[in-house]
Amino acid sequence: MERRPCAPELLKFHMTDESPTPIIVGTRGSELALFQANATETALKTAFPDRTILRTVIKTTGDRRTDVSLSEVAKSEGTFDKGVFIKEIEEALDEGTIDIAVHSLKDLPTTLNPRFALAAVLERAPVRDILVMKAPGGLAALPQGARIGTGSVRRAKQIEWLRPDVSVADLRGNVPTRLRKLADEQTYDAILLAEAGLLRLGYLSDQESEEEIIGIPGLFATRLAEAEFFPAAGQGAIGLEIRADDAASRVYAESIGHQPSWLRITAEREFLRLLDGGCHTPVGVYSSIADREISLKALVFPDAGGPPKSGAATGTDPITLALELFNSLS
Questions:
Q1: Cys staple from 122: which of 204, 216, 238, 261, with CB 3.0 to 4.6 Å?
Q2: What is the CATH code for 274-328?
Q3: Start and end residues for every CATH 3.40.190.10 domain found in the chain
Q4: Would you say the C-alpha torsion 313, 224, 123, 27 has a positive or negative sign?
Q5: 320 Cβ neighbours under 8 A, 6+ residues apart
Q6: What is the pLDDT of residues 95-113, one digit of tens each?
């Protein structure tokens, strides 16, 4: 796996730092979050075998409040939708009780509080969305009037655009909970989930075709091509957030980062910033990279309704590329 190079002055800092202080990783407690924390800790132990790695599990507002929609929780907390999943973790960073916060990158706001910084991302997993149904066949096989469960405005808008005859219902809970709701209840005909989470938790194999959900007979997964059903900015990436002035933690995070993934997510997040879009905004962004040349495409649903705007751009500098994509929207 390719690693992000550290700046020379940060390498010098690391080499002269003899402190035995452990590196403390902070994470949510869901099964998926713990998988992501474990991946981060394994990479840190490999890169810094002389360091002790500790884990702090933090229960966030979003984890406690699963009885209502994300938008309602966010409104009561005075934050954006998925800010309810990072508030307490950032408080722990601010207090210095953790050094590196591990996030599903799509949960992070586009622009962070100046006290914090996104230092690196691990190698990105597949970014596609998955349609999980009680019968095989995919999107075209959904019956008219089918009820689709999702907690994502982006996914809801795209489903409604592609299949205006179906309805969308709010769906909360971690990945296993959502799968069990589909399998055991009559509330939903299908649900939408991220491929990365299903792979990391062992519910999918690495095959590319439609398949049955592993461990839950009667549920079938169809991968939705990212160029047709656009993923969220940062989807499939594990983000490492630090205190902006913490040079040591920046060394640790950057040393295990993956440069091609970093270039892609930088372009995607900068495009979202130009749109002034947060996690609640119905925007899909798809990127790919080959020989450092990044291809970036987007689908943006207007707040007032109507068909989405789309655009595409190609280039090597992620910031310039994001601006080109923004200017290409039509």
A1: 238
A2: 3.30.160.40
A3: 8-123+236-258, 129-224
A4: positive
A5: none
A6: 999 999 999 998 898 889 9
pLDDT in tens, 154-163: 999 999 999 9
Write the pLDDT tens digit of every residue in 126-143: 999 999 999 999 999 999
Per DSSP, what are the bridge partners of residue 148? 168, 190
Q: How far apart are CA 75 and CA 108, in angstroms?
A: 17
**pTM for this predicted structure:** 0.87
Active-site option among 81, 99, 107, 189: 107
Taking a C-beta distance cutoff of 8 angstroms, is the pair 223, 181 a contact? no
Return the CATH fold of 8-123+236-258: D-Maltodextrin-Binding Protein; domain 2 (3.40.190)
User: Active-site residue 107, yes or no?
Assistant: yes
CA angle 252, 255, 260 (to 5 degrees): 135
Name the average pLDDT for the chain: 88
